Amino acid sequence: MARTAERPAVAGTSLVPLVHRIAWRRRETSDVVTIALEAVGESLAPFRAGQFHMLTAFGVGEVAISVSGTPGAPGPVEHTIRDVGAVSHALSHLPAGGVVGARGPFGTSWGVAGLEEEDVVVIAGGIGLAPLRGAVHQLSKRRGPGRLTVLVGARTPDQLVFADDVRRWRELGADVRLTVDAATPDWGGEVGLVTALLPGASFDPARTVGLLCGPEVMMRFAAADLADLGVDSSCIRVSLERNMQCGAGICGHCQLGPLLLCRDGPVVTYGGTVAALMGQVER
Ligand SMILES: Cc1cc2nc3c(=O)[nH]c(=O)nc-3n(C[C@H](O)[C@H](O)[C@H](O)COP(=O)(O)OP(=O)(O)OC[C@H]3O[C@@H](n4cnc5c(N)ncnc54)[C@H](O)[C@@H]3O)c2cc1C
Ligand code: FES
Q1: Given this structure, which CATH class describes domain 18-106?
Q2: pLDDT in tens, 109-159
Q3: What is this structure's pTM?
Q4: Does the C-beta of 31 come closer than 6 Å to ligand 1?
Q5: Residue 34, by phi and psi: left (phi above 0), alpha (psi -120 to 50) or beta?
């Protein structure tokens, strides 16, 4: 079993943004947009699911945004952005044809290439499904015996993203379960925390890998619940977000204990140092 997240080399990754054009944009929710980028000149190196790019809104600033597309898929590279501040606002309001900068890819990946036999439990909170989307696409096409469970939580039904993908993953055999914190009159699904979906999911803890992305408090509780169900903490991977500046292991802004999260993360193995740094759940 591939028990640890992959760790790539960052040497040679450019610090200079490459110019990209927005080929198309799609609104996902009231404050979330997916933009698809195509290179104007030189292309970015291939990415793995879970890695991120540093995207520049020219004249505004640069932020870390995970790739939400599928590795190896033809066409422009997708990023899904929540409008929370100056840069994400500028990026998510550029029209198709608009120009941005992009450099990377940076960081570790979900490491799905090694997961043929394992059961995989994906747990996402809100826009946390974006960095996992490419991994779920890849996992849903596996031919091995491993089962795929995808648990997604959002604040309200209109905050759920990627409805078409959810349909497709279900058609491909994945067990996809959705829940919301607060229902609306037209919502017929589950209401409650995403971790409340775990008992209904079918997986063998002894051969399960957990992939978690969302608010850190959600990942802490989800990781603790998976561990309580018997999943080894070395088989639980979480994606951690910190302030990224260089993206290339140079500036130290993204430091978390002994880790530089742009280089050693964002996907890290839960347990040990990481669990302690995230603050373990007392039971
Ligand atoms: C590895 C990595 C991958 C990321 N991937 C994505 C992604 O795929 N899509 C995406 O939208 N963002 C992603 N982010 C988060 C993004 O980089 C930050 O939200 C960034 O700070 C936005 O910059 P800004 O200038 O728009 O807002 P800022 O001015 O930096 O922030 C504005 C306000 O929003 C708050 N804030 C910042 N980030 C968030 C957040 N994520 N949720 C809620 N409030 C927040 C800040 O505390 C601040 O109060 C990622 C971050 C990292 C480190
Ligand atoms: S962002 Fe500069 S070292 Fe990680």
Answers
A1: mainly beta
A2: 999 988 989 999 999 999 999 999 999 999 999 888 899 999 999 999 999
A3: 0.93
A4: no
A5: beta
